[in-house]
Amino acid sequence: MEYASPEDKNFIAKYQARCHCGAVRYEVRADPVDAKICHCRVCQLLHGAPMQWAAIFHKRDVRFVSGVEHLRFYNSELDRNERLLPCKVICASCGTPVADEGRNMWLAFPTLFDFGVPPKVPEAFQPTCHIFYSMRVMDIADGLPKWSGHKGESARL
User: Fold this and answer.
1) Could you write out the DSSP letters of every residue in the chain?
2) Which of 64, 72, 101, 120 has its CA 20 to 30 A from that of 24?
């Protein structure tokens, strides 16, 4: 599955996102399917943070506005800088992690979206759970369900 076409006249953008330097810009036309906080070691290393917050969209609801030529891909399982799905998507100009691309899904990072100043994050982007919480480097007491691996496919902690 690929992204929505830039020529799709029926595409009505609901949200806009961009990398730090603005070279990569994309839009989505729907609310996220889900939003999660991931504590896996790969996310920790690639984001330089204790966890990663992702809002999950169908790729058909994502459309690039500019900067496709600035995208760089990395498949962490194979340690290859290629668009081998699933993979990490990065802006080659500024180094911003843009998303995780799956075969059918786009795991966007909500902090890249324009939610105004000060930001008012829509309810649809609020995380519903923590995944790979067994790999956490710090405890989070937020009342959200915590899974040892993927949501619904692992032990709930």
Assistant:
1) --PPPTT-TT---SEEEE-SSSSSEEEESS--SEEEEE--HHHHHHHTSS-EEEEEEEGGGEEEEE-GGGEEEEBTTTTBSS--SSEEEEETTT--EEEEE-SSEEEE-GGGB--TTTT---GGGS--EEESGGG-SS---SS--BBSSSTTTS-B-
2) 120
Handedness of CA 91, 97, 103, 107 (dihedral sign): negative
Q: pLDDT digits over 57-70, tens only?
A: 999 999 999 999 99
| Cα(16)–Cα(7) distance, integer angstroms | 17
Q: How far apart are CA 36 and CA 61, in angstroms?
A: 18
CATH class belonging to 15-135: mainly beta
| Domain locations in the chain as residue ranges | 15-135
Which two tokens mark 54?
A: 């992702």
Report the distance separating Cα 81 and Cα 73, nearest Å. 6
For 103-135, write each residue's pLDDT tens digit: 999 999 999 999 999 999 999 999 999 999 999
